[in-house]
Amino acid sequence: MILEALVKIVLVLIVVLTAVSYLVLLERWISAWIQDRIGPNRVGPLGLLQPLADVLKLLLKEDIEPTQAQKWFHWVAPVISITVAFSVLAVIPFGNSITIGGREISLAIASNVDIGALYIIAMTSVGVYGITLAGWSSGSKYSLLGGLRSSAQMISYELTLGLGLLSVVILTGGLDMGEIIRSQASGTWNIIRAPLGFIIFLVSSFAETNRQPFDLPEAEPELVGGYHTEYSSMKFALFFLAEYANMITASAVMTVLFLGGWHVPFVADMGLSSVVLGIIGVAAFALKTLGFLFFFIWVRWTVPRFRYDQLMDLGWKVLLPLGILNIVLTALEKYFLIH
Amino acid sequence: MQHQTKYNNRSPNRKLTFWEKLYLPEIVRGLLTTFKHIFRPKFTRQYPEERWDAPDSFRGRPVLVLDDNNVERCVACGLCSRVCPPLAIEVQASETELLKERYPVRFEINMLRCIFCGFCEEVCPEEAIVMSKDYELVFRNPEDAMYSKDRLLTPKAELKGRLDFLKSMRN
Question: DSSP states of B7-49 as a string?
Fold first, then answer.
């Protein structure tokens, strides 16, 4: 059992770390295409080795620590960020369970965690610490402002994130991620059953991952670099990695909650073996996640950054009431239509 | 009429319509715009492989015109060196048996100083120094940036475009 879990952890980490570095390349490509440019195409064929060059460059940079910094917290902040970003992946089912040699293997690191959804919300809350600590411990006013903004923003949007998630929990009747997918596999996807909840969750995810249009913690024109102004070398790379890993986890979570995870309509009835079904499921899951990632990048190069008060207005005056309304609507839907 | 008000009345004080206040439809409109741009032809020039062909009006590295009889046009009057704002040109005159009587025995342009203003070309009475289309100026050390006669002299045929352009601008 432990060996199986370890193998899964290593596999997932390798895949996600590679995905993160290639996500950076994808972001640079898409941003270039949207701006009528070509994008990186020099390192390797089609520029596919660009991530390698980027990582090498970051590794060779000097690690600068400001004299005013709180050394221990300055060091631990990026570690918290990256740990939280990856730990959410533990409860996400990448595919249906497969049977090899009479042994059932579920395609999730920690399968059958009956509080999966709650765990995700809890871990993203811990993510605030990484950014806030980084801002505070750097001993720079720009970093501090970025850190403060992020704590205010992420705590505000966590509420609406939770409310969006709650509509899915009402529809499923449980917090188990696998159960959420199975309930969608037997019926329709949650994006159809709770469209308002999906929009609320999507917008909150943008705020939680600090992506445009809600990237106020690192708003370059105002805050130099925001919370990571004073970071360099691998510590900066960790923040960078965490941001993109957060994007991947957010996309994966949205895939599970609203797009039916690994579920592909009509495939289950075709009588394929469990391994083939598993592979199809994992591929479908990856494809759906990739779609969300593209959307994240696409929005970044379309919508300009919000002003700080507008961000708070949107969170507290619009999304929170909408989220509560959505809970009521979903409850009524569950009671009258599905139940 | 409605179409006109939709696009002309973009003042910041105007009342937003209900759909604009909802924000989401406008975001979708923006997303469609950016999505269309993904498939547009790209502006990027792949520089070392794909070079820029400068127009005749371009002011690149100043060069000396070598006439058809293989003699430079320059009569070493020194006006260019006199007019040069950053003092980049140095001319040393000498006598010759030819009809023009004077020629530059030494002519040097310091390309670290040159600001590509084109005053030398404008002031030259003989149309002997003109701006070429050469914009790729790379040096490994300051000595390389001193262009003397051997590198400045350019056959007239190569400068035809610029000479014709100057003629067309003259009157």
Answer: HH---TTSPPPHHHHH-HHHHHHHHHHHHHHHTSPP----TTT
Q: Tokens for A82?
A: 């990256």
**Residue B171, pLDDT score:** 67
From the list A30, A36, A302, which residue is nearest B30 (CB)? A302
- Token look-up 């966590």 returns A158
Question: How is residue A281 written in tokens?
Answer: 């499921």
Query: Which of A62-76, A108-122, B133-147 has the highest average model confidence (pLDDT)?
Result: B133-147
CA distance A31 to chain B (A): 9
How far off is chain A from B46, nearest CA to CA, in Å? 9
Q: Which amino acid appears at position B164 of this protein?
A: D
Pairing of strands B62-66, B153-155: parallel
The predicted-structure confidence for A193-238, as pLDDT tens digits, reads as follows 888 888 889 988 888 888 878 877 777 777 777 778 888 888 888 8
Interchain pair B43, A36: CB under 8 A:
yes
B37 reaches A (C-beta below 8 A): yes
Compute the count of residue pairs across chains A and B with CB atoms less than 8 Å apart: 34
Upper half-sphere CA count for residue B111 (Cβ side, 13 Å) = 22
Yes or no: say if B162 and B130 are a contact pair by the CB < 8 Å rule.
Answer: yes
**Segment A295-303 mean pLDDT:** 89
Chain A contact set for B33 (CB, 8 A): 302
In single-letter form, the type of residue at position B25 comes to P
Q: Report the C-alpha gap between A216 and A271 in whole angstroms.
A: 50
**pLDDT reported for residue A294:** 92
- Local confidence band at B1 (pLDDT 50, 70, 90 cut-offs): very low
Q: Which residues of A touch B34 (CB under 8 A)?
A: 34, 298, 301-302
Cα A202 to its chain centre, rounded Å, is 11
Closest approach of B19 to chain A, Cα-based (Å) = 15
